[in-house]
Amino acid sequence: MNKSLQGRMPGLGSNLKRNLHFFLSGLVMHPYSPSSLLWLFSPMGAQIPTGFCRVLSARRIGLTGWLLLHSFLSPLVSLAQPASAGHAIVADLSQKLEHAFDTGEHSDSIQAWLGQLQAVNASSPKGLGQAHAHRFRGILLLNDFQKDSALARFRAALPLYQQVGTAYQLHRLLLHMADAHFEIGNYSTCDSLLQQVTTYAQEENQTFLLGRIAYIKGSLASRQGNCVASVEAMEEALARFVECGNLRWQSMAQAEAGACLVDLGRFDEGIARYLASAKYYETRGEMRNVGIRYINIGTVFYDMGRYTEAIEYGYKAHLALDSSFSYGQAYVYNLLGISYNEQEVRDSAVYYFEKILALDSVDALQNDYLLAIVLSNLGEALGRMGQSSRALPYVNQGLALASELADLLTLSRLHVVKGDILLLLGEEELSLSETLAGVALAEQERFTSVLNPGYRNLATIYAAQGNYEEAYRYHMQHKLIDDSLAGVDKLRAVARLETEYETEKKENEIDRLSQEAIIQSLELSRKNTLLYSVSMGLVLVVAVFGVLYQQRQLRSKKKAIELEQRLLRAQMSPHFIFNTMVSLRNALHEKSKEETSLYLTKFSKLMRQILEHSRQEFISLQDEVETLENYCALQQFRYGDSFRYTLEVAEEIEPEEVLIPPMFAQPFIENALEHGIDHAKREGELTVRFSKEGDRTLKLHVQDNGRGIEVTKEIKAQEGTSHKSLALLITQERLANFGLAGTLALEQLYDADRRVKGTLVAMSLPYQIDL
């Protein structure tokens, strides 16, 4: 027994009857196992003579001897049975809870069962039931990432299991303690506990325990940066879980293997594992775990340079995760932060990283591993913003944490990030030293995601030093990895896997029926040819109906999206009309009759445009610009020319031929005029730009020189209007329906002295060509 697990134990005589009961019970259940005899003495801390064990071992007395001893002692079990009325209830509840935690089934009953277990324990607080209660509540806490509280529960259960538990129960507890120490970062203690459990599990051939041990070892190797060893361990764990039929842990092993495959640059294999895991959780309605898998998939897209898709999956994960799950939300914010950082939306990146540092998940959960990653990302974002001096302390703090945790992946990345920052500060030699250290570690562990920027930075440094031979060499290595990451085959493989996953969710029932029909036809074919033909006919019928059903589903989905878009536009129109009527009311009070008449004329024209557009899914860009021109003129009239506005369309766009969805720009123009621009200064500026972004999307920018996002929030709070914008919610929903979720970004603008100089809203819009 490990020294850390030894404690004060009562003498042998005081609990002989209880130990005799467990000895006899173990003998009845496992009559040929020497561990039955060890448990007569070992829970009391007594020293077991080696010779005694040899004499009583099955190898010495033989099978017949064990059978005779078993038949002689079995009748004494009832005499040694503890006199507890709740013994059967405790056994039943512990079995149910064990099954629920291992398989994920009946998870909604766990709290009720724990309550019943606690009630049974009230009369005997130091019994086996109390040990179970501590262990199972510890598992709940660990699942909620409350690691220290979980470990405290496990430690409370330890002496109770040592006194009255079975060998299996004790070693299950030791496995949970290893899990907790791993999450906390006590890797040596975790490894020591795993060795104890491994010996027992191998002797008793406990397949599930061996799978759990391999899973933790794989996680440990991953945390320490040994991705190859981690994948091997997870494959072993997966094989064990398949052998014992545990689907839940198969899913978890798939996901962990996926993470390491991604770190090794095998993106298509990694995303296949994530999708397999997500499919399992989705069928069970476990949205928290679905959200975690969405984070994983978003991270893969980030590593492949597909940042828009990464942001989309980040928002999907945010919606799937409940807001109280701050640990998961921290990883969502990290994904959004790094993706916005790569899109050069620096303020948004820093905003999300700082949101993580403000969460309880960093300090309360003592997650130094997560903190090291966040510090790395925050330092990189600040460095790219040109705030190198502010970035360096974050990076140094992250380096210290990653080194302490032996987190080689984060450590290598931080060296490269620090080298980049030092280069910006003009420290070429220090930059070279840090970058080489990071690249050497990444080459050793094959961290492709670190080597790519590392080689790029080395090429830049050597070029700055005039060493063009080395600069060219590292540039070619960077280009080789870059081409590999963006390879057409990988992109197609990931797209295919993602499409298969989405299609499988919709056609799951059809596939199941088709498979059943095929199986039946194969079975019948062995009997006679006639039944085989009939079965094949049924399969064809099912397939035809399946195709028809799929087409009907697609038509229904398209119709539903069109109806939803129409509904959202209908929601937007009354909202817009309401705000315009408010402006009209103000004009009636403040303007002359002639001015009011002019205002009403423009207003009626604008209403006709809005009502016409609300019935159309797409309108010409020319019509949209004319509507915005009319709206801005009305608002300029209302505010007494306190602001100037500009509506711009890029030269490569033909406004009469390009069709876009209506009413996307207006809510943000309204927000800028209502809350952003300070009309008292009469220096307001508003710019709306449409530019081409891709083959199927335009970029819309709405920019003002107002107070900025934070000041606007404070003013709204003081005025009691800090509610969430209806127009903003509707816009996000409309973008999601067009497959452009995550493209909406709000950025606070600064001048050279870091003073707020306005707000920029950017989003992607779909467009069509009017033929």
Low-pLDDT segments, ≥5 res: 1-83, 566-572
Level of helix content?
Answer: over 70%
- The helix tally amounts to 34
Task: Please name the CATH topology of the domain at 560-769.
Answer: Heat Shock Protein 90
- Helices and strands: which structural class? alpha+beta
For CATH, the homologous superfamily of the domain at 560-769 is named as Histidine kinase-like ATPase, C-terminal domain
Per CATH, the class of the domain at 560-769 reads Alpha Beta
Overall shape: globular
- Determine Rg (CA atoms, Å): 33 Å
CA-CA gap between termini:
80 Å
Mind explaining what this structure looks like?
By secondary structure, the chain is of the alpha+beta class. Among the domains are: 78 residues, no CATH class; 81 residues, Serine Threonine Protein Phosphatase 5, Tetratricopeptide repeat; 120 residues, Tetratricopeptide repeat domain (Serine Threonine Protein Phosphatase 5, Tetratricopeptide repeat); 210 residues, Histidine kinase-like ATPase, C-terminal domain (Heat Shock Protein 90), CATH 3.30.565.10. The chain is built from 34 helices and eight strands. Strands 2-4-5-7-6 form a five-stranded mixed sheet. Strands 1-3-8 form a three-stranded antiparallel sheet. Helix 9 packs antiparallel against helix 10 and helix 12 packs antiparallel against helix 13. The N and C termini lie far apart (80 Å).
